[in-house]
Each structure stands twice: as structure tokens, then as C-alpha cells.
Write a structure and sequence with these properties.
About 40% of the residues lie in helices and about 20% in strands. The chain contains 16 helices and 16 strands.
């Protein structure tokens, strides 16, 4: 039996049900194996009173310290943070809080390996904890943990030190592996670990009926992601000028919502902001769309790319992260420049000559949670066995 302690600074909870959902799905796949036991530690950063009463933090402040979620035991210890200025202190704060907690956990769950889900803050915290408890640890590179945190002078040294101390490293795409190597980490230490998709839930449907269920008809474009500058929803909105008679659905929420709504006002009812939706609602939305567009400035390998493809919906994306590992030709979408004109031209071409749904879906069939789990098990069991 391989006993895995999963350390995740992004993990869903009752107040944020879609927060780090891809981490939960990966962990559930690993835990489903008969030869693996998993417990999750998802630390929650909270500022001191009275800031902890702010609506942004209030929901997480009332979460249980320990719960069973979808069959997983999840621990949610609190660590202190100072909003906006204290990120470099988070790994040390997490490790201080977790040391006594993990000492108690090890009495009933003597974990063999720590599986850190992000390079920051998880990676440096895991390095401290693994050293303290004498167990191996792994870190996974997913996106902003490398593209943002590894570029900051105050956090980059911690990331590099953790990477060099780690017993194993993972990257969500080959492009992300190269980005990790560019930091000065030997590429042969990094293993590519692609995401997965539930091919039963995400599947093609009758597109006309799916649109009607949403009160739509005609061409439909969807974009799915947090409403932040990096995701580029403003570019898709501007592209709608050149896409006649099409509707745009924006799924997600975030700090840019008001700015994006103002930008979209000229289009009237052609553009809808749907807010955050449960992950269970996403298959129907993606199956209704003729195209899913996401012109991100950076990604690792976005789950929504694969989920859209599994629904038979072609994608228009930028040349970031694992884009070329997903789209190696034009049969299921386009990789384009991050401009309204390029986005509009690609969407228009796909609307004029829609690719076969089954051909689009076949691209997604390479990315399964079963393969994801098998790769992760092999990686972690190797680390535990050789430590």
C-alpha cells in the first residue's frame, strides 16, 4: 500500500466549489486505486482580525478543520497571511502550521511520500516538511506557479531551492517541462504528467438541442475561465465585432467582471456573463458551443481545452503551454496570435467549415484520468521505493 499525503494550496471547498477542481479530480483518481491510500492537506490562508471578516475570506474562515469530501479525508489548517505583501512568507507559515498537524496524522497515516501540487507555495513548504519527517517529496509545475511566482525576486529562490531538493518533479506539459528546465533545473529530472478528462461526462450532444436548452440559436462561442487579464476574455469580446450574428457565453467570475461587462455592453444580448457554474453544468455548455475560445497569455495545459474537445467542440487558443501537444494540426481547432483579428478569423473559419465532432473528440481521447493516475502512481511509488 502506497500512502500519499497530497499538499494542495488550491483545492475545492464548500465556499469555492470550483477552486482547484482539477487537483481534486487527479487526487480522486489516485485514491481510487486499491494499492493507494491518500489524505489531503489543503492549507487556508487567513489574515488577522478584522480583515478575516472581509467577504473574500469569510467563507473559508467557517470551513471545518477536517472533513470527508467525495471519500477523501481533507485537512484544512489555517495559516496567517498579510494580503498583498506577504506571499514570500507563506511557505514557512504553512510548514510551521503543518508540522504539528502532520505529526498527529502520521500516528494513524504514516505517509510514504508528499505530493505537492504546485511549485508555490506548496513546493517550498513540502521541502521543509519532507526534510522534517524524513520522507521523499514531489512537486508539480502547472502554470502560474512557474510563469508568475518563479519570475519574482522574492519567491524565485525558494522555488529553485525546493526544485533542487525534490526527489521528483512533474510538469503538466512538455512546454512546461522546458520552462522548468529554463530555471536551471536539469530537464531529465522533470516528468511530463498530462491532465485528464472524464470522457463519459464530457461528450458530444445534439448541438441544436443543447443551444435550445440555453435559449440560444445560431452560432455560439464560449470562453471558460476566471475573469482576469491573463485569460484574455477582453480579446474575445473585441473579436465579436467581426463575427456576425454569433452569441458569446462567458463562464467564470473574477475581478475583471465589471470592466468586461462595460466592454461588452455595445453588443447587447449577444454577450452573456454566466458567472461561475458548477463543473457538472460545463458539459452541456461546451456541447452547445460551436467554438470554445481562450486566448490566454500563459497556461500549463488547460483542462477546459480538453473538456471542450471531448464534447466535439473545436478550440481557438494561443501558443502557450501545451497548446501544440493538444493541437498538432487544424483538425480540432486553431492556434493563433493573441489579437482580436486573429481570434475572429479563426472562429469564422471554424463556423464556415465545422470539423467533424468525432474527429475533434478523438484528440481528447489521449488525455484520460486513467492514464493520469497510472503515471502519477508510477512516479510516486518509485520515489517512495528508492528513498
Amino acid at each position: 500500500m502506497l500512502r500519499v499525503l497530497t499538499l494542495a494550496s488550491l483545492f475545492p471547498d464548500a465556499s469555492r466549489p470550483t477552486f482547484g477542481l482539477f487537483v481534486e479530480r487527479q487526487t480522486l483518481g489516485l485514491a481510487a486505486r486499491a494499492d493507494v491510500a491518500v489524505e489531503v492537506v489543503a492549507p487556508l490562508g487567513l489574515p488577522p482580525w478584522p480583515l478575516n471578516r472581509h467577504p473574500h475570506y469569510r467563507g473559508r474562515a467557517t470551513l471545518p478543520a477536517r472533513e470527508s469530501r467525495n471519500g477523501l479525508t481533507v485537512h484544512r489548517p489555517r495559516f496567517p497571511l498579510i494580503p498583498g505583501i506577504g506571499a514570500r512568507f507563506h511557505p514557512a507559515a504553512i510548514a510551521r502550521v503543518l508540522c504539528p498537524l502532520l505529526t498527529r496524522i502520521r500516528q494513524d497515516f504514516p505517509f510514504d511520500v508528499i505530493d505537492a501540487q504546485f511549485f508555490f507555495p506548496d513546493g517550498p513548504a513540502a521541502a521543509r516538511l519532507a526534510h522534517h519527517f524524513g520522507v521523499p517529496f514531489s512537486i508539480k509545475a502547472r502554470g502560474a506557479d512557474i510563469h508568475y511566482w518563479a519570475t519574482r525576486a522574492d519567491t524565485r529562490p525558494q522555488i529553485l531551492a525546493a526544485a533542487r531538493a525534490a526527489d521528483g518533479l512533474l510538469a503538466v506539459s512538455a512546454r512546461m517541462k522546458a520552462d522548468v528546465a529554463a530555471l536551471g533545473i536539469a530537464a531529465d529530472r522533470v516528468r511530463v504528467h498530462h491532465t485528464g478528462v472524464d470522457l463519459d461526462r464530457f461528450a458530444p450532444a445534439d448541438r441544436t438541442a443543447a443551444k435550445a436548452a440555453l435559449g440560444l440559436s445560431g452560432p455560439v462561442i464560449a470562453t471558460v475561465g476566471a475573469l482576469i487579464p491573463r485569460k484574455g476574455q477582453d480579446i474575445v469580446i473585441d473579436a465579436m465585432v467581426d463575427i456576425a450574428d454569433a452569441s458569446l457565453l462567458l463562464v467564470g467570475d473574477g475581478p475583471d467582471r465589471r470592466l468586461l461587462e462595460a466592454r461588452a455592453a455595445r453588443f447587447g444580448s449577444r454577450i452573456r456573463f454566466l458567472g461561475n457554474r458548477p463543473h457538472t453544468a460545463l458539459p452541456a455548455l461546451l456541447a452547445a458551443a460551436d467554438v470554445m475560445a481562450l486566448p490566454s497569455a500563459s497556461e500549463g495545459l488547460a483542462n477546459v481545452w480538453i473538456e471542450a474537445l471531448a464534447c466535439g467542440t473545436p478550440i481557438v487558443i494561443t501558443d502557450v503551454g501545451g497548446a501544440r501537444e493538444v493541437l498538432d494540426d487544424d483538425s480540432a481547432g486553431r492556434i493563433v496570435a493573441r489579437t482580436p483579428g486573429a481570434i475572429a478569423a479563426a472562429i469564422t473559419a471554424l463556423l464556415a467549415a465545422p470539423p467533424d465532432k468525432n474527429a475533434v473528440r478523438r484528440v481528447a481521447e489521449r488525455f484520460t484520468w486513467q492514464r493520469n493516475s497510472a503515471t502519477l502512481f508510477d512516479h510516486l511509488s518509485t520515489l517512495a521505493g528508492r528513498h
